[in-house]
Design brief:
By secondary structure, the protein is of the alpha+beta class. Strands 1, 2, 3, 4, 5, 6, 7 and 8 form an 8-stranded antiparallel beta sheet that branches. Helices cover 38% and strands 32% of the residues. The chain has a single domain (3-148), classed as Electron Transport, Fmn-binding Protein, Chain A (Pnp Oxidase, Chain A, Roll), CATH 2.30.110. The chain is built from 4 helices and 8 strands; from the N terminus they run H-E-E-E-E-E-H-E-E-H-H-E. It has helices at residues 3-28, 83-90, 112-125, 129-136, and strands spanning 36-37, 40-48, 55-61, 63-65, 68-72, 93-98, 101-110, 143-148. Strand 1 and strand 2 (40-48) form a beta hairpin.
Amino acid sequence: MEKKDQTRRMTRILLFVFLFFHNYIYIYTNGRIGKNLNGRPCLILETVGAKTKLVRKNVLVFLREGNEICLVASRGGSERNPGWYYNLKKNRTSVIFIGTERFEVTSREIFEEERHEWWLKMDYLNNGGYGRYQQRTNRTIPVIILSIT
């Protein structure tokens, strides 16, 4: 294995470990610690598993405009959508925590022009990361809007 490949692999491993601990701390402290990740706002999305019916919590980068919150179901550019996406498709109502604030929300997937507008904003927030993720995968990465109820 080339040194460059080893460096990439180690970087991915360290990033995975860092994100795991960030997510754990954010969830464990009920939003008191970890509501930002490298300057990007994060929320805790609490859904009910589409198959298991168990409560699932995910920490996600988001963009809020008024009562609308945008999420991108990128899963790092993987060929599969993240589990939380299917959970929201099965049950459109869920709960989010932004810091220590709790909100009930309803979700909807957006398409075409609306998706494009939110995509550009989210990609800018993520320093072009979502665009790079889209290049890695053959699927169209879903964009979800949560509306605070």
